[in-house]
From TrEMBL:
Species annotation: Cephalopterus ornatus (Amazonian umbrellabird)
Name the UniProt record assigns to this protein: CBPZ Carboxypeptidase
Biological process according to GO: peptide metabolic process; protein processing
Keyword Hydrolase: yes
Record keywords: Carboxypeptidase, Disulfide bond, Hydrolase, Protease
FZ domain span: 1-120
Molecular functions (GO terms): metallocarboxypeptidase activity; zinc ion binding
Family matches, as InterPro entries: CARBOXYPEPT_ZN_1, Frizzled_dom, Frizzled_dom_sf, Peptidase_M14, Peptidase_M14_domain
SMART domains cross-referenced by the UniProt entry: FRI, Zn_pept
Keyword Hydrolase listed: yes
Family recorded in the similarity comment: Belongs to the peptidase M14 family.
GO cellular component entries: extracellular space
Gene behind this protein: Cpz_1
Domain Peptidase M14: 146-316
Disulfide bond annotation, renumbered to this chain: 82-106
Length: 316
C-alpha cells in the first residue's frame, strides 16, 4: 500500500488526510471511485433519508471508499461503530423501503478493536483535535486562557465534568445540521437529575457561529465553577448547592467551523454567522410574546403552556 492525499470531494472532512488505492471495494483510482454507484449513494443519502443519520453515514461510507492510511499501512474502521450506526439508522432505511448498503457490511469491511481500528465518527464527538497535556506541576485549579476549537471545547468540558464528577456532568441536547453534538455541562448537587422546586438556569453562547467570545467565556465559567467549588469558595458553593446550572458554550458549531476556516480578520461579519441551513438562530424564535397577549384576551385560555403557533411554520 502507498498513502496518497484524499481527493474525493465527498470525503474531504474526514478525520484523516491520506487514503490508499485500491480501496476496500478494489477500486483502483479516484476516477473509478467517483463514477461508482457506491460513491453516488453516499452523496445522495442525506436527501434520500431526509437528513437522518447524516453526516454519520457519509463518513462511514468514506472510511470504506477512502480507507485511512498511515505510514503506508491501511487502518480499518471499527466494527462497533458500524453496528451501532446500523442499529440506529435501519428505521430510516425501512421508512423508504431501502436495504442497508452492501458496502457498509459491518463484518466484511470493518475490524474489531483488538485488530487495531479507528472510529470514523470521532470528529463528530470532538475526539480528534484534543488539547496538549499541561505540565504536571500546575495546581488542579489552573485555568488556561486559550481559544478552543470545537473538539477542544468538548474535551475541556469532559475533563471538567471528570474533575468535578460529584457536581458536574455533560450531555447533548441534539445534533447540529452537520452532525456535531450540542454539548452542555451541568452543575448541580445531583448532576443529571431534575429536583422539584430547585431553580434551573442556563447560559447559551455562540448562537452566531462567528461570534466566539460568549463561547470562550462559558468554557472559562465552567472551569471557574469547578475550581472554585473545589477550593471551597462559599459563594460558588451556595450557587451550585441551590441551583441547577446548564452551560451550552456553542449552539452553532457548524457556523463556528466555517468562520474558523476563514480565520479571524478575513471573514467579515457574514461568514459563519448562520447555521449550515442558512438560519440566523438569533432571529428564528417563535414570537410567543404576541401569542401570549392574544391568548390573554380569551376567557379561560392558559398562559402557562403556549404551543408554537402553526403560522410560525409557514414557508419553513
Amino acid at each position: 500500500a502507498k498513502c496518497v492525499d484524499i481527493a474525493l470531494s465527498s470525503c474531504t472532512d474526514v478525520a484523516y488526510t491520506q487514503m490508499v488505492y485500491p480501496n476496500f471495494l478494489d477500486q483502483k483510482s479516484r476516477e473509478v471511485i467517483e463514477y461508482s454507484s457506491e460513491y453516488l449513494l453516499i452523496s445522495v443519502l442525506h436527501n434520500l433519508l431526509q437528513g437522518e443519520c447524516n453526516p454519520d453515514l457519509r463518513l462511514l461510507g468514506c472510511s470504506v471508499l477512502a480507507p485511512q492510511c498511515e505510514k503506508d499501512k491501511v487502518i480499518k474502521p471499527c466494527r462497533r461503530v458500524c453496528e451501532n450506526l446500523k442499529k440506529n439508522c435501519l428505521p430510516a432505511f425501512d421508512a423508504i423501503d431501502m436495504a442497508w448498503p452492501y458496502f457498509l457490511d459491518c463484518d466484511r469491511f470493518f475490524a474489531g478493536e483488538e485488530e487495531g481500528c479507528f472510529d470514523p465518527l470521532a470528529k463528530l464527538r470532538g475526539e480528534v483535535d484534543v488539547e496538549e497535556d499541561l505540565p504536571s506541576n500546575l495546581p488542579a485549579t489552573f485555568i488556561r486562557f486559550k481559544h478552543h476549537s470545537y473538539s477542544q471545547m468538548v474535551s475541556t468540558l469532559k475533563k471538567i465534568a471528570s474533575k468535578c464528577s460529584h457536581i458536574a456532568t455533560t450531555y447533548s441536547i441534539g445534533r447540529s445540521f452537520e452532525g456535531k453534538d450540542l454539548f452542555v455541562i451541568e452543575f448541580s448537587t445531583k448532576p443529571g437529575h431534575h429536583e422539584l422546586l430547585k431553580p434551573e438556569f442556563k447560559y447559551i453562547g455562540n448562537m452566531h457561529g462567528n461570534e466566539v467570545v460568549g463561547k470562550e467565556l462559558l468554557i472559562y465559567l465552567a472551569q471557574y465553577l469547578c475550581s472554585e467549588y473545589l477550593l471551597g469558595n462559599p459563594r460558588i458553593q451556595t450557587l451550585i448547592n441551590n441551583t441547577r446550572i446548564h452551560l451550552l458554550p456553542s449552539l452553532n458549531p457548524d457556523g463556528y467551523e466555517l468562520a474558523a476556516e476563514e480565520g479571524a480578520g478575513y471573514n467579515g461579519w457574514v461568514i459563519g454567522r448562520q447555521t449550515a441551513q442558512n438560519l440566523d438562530l438569533n432571529r428564528n424564535f417563535p414570537d410567543l410574546t404576541s401569542e401570549a397577549y392574544r391568548r390573554a384576551g380569551i376567557r379561560g385560555a392558559r398562559l402557562d403552556h403556549i404551543p408554537i403557533p402553526q403560522s410560525y411554520w409557514w414557508g419553513k
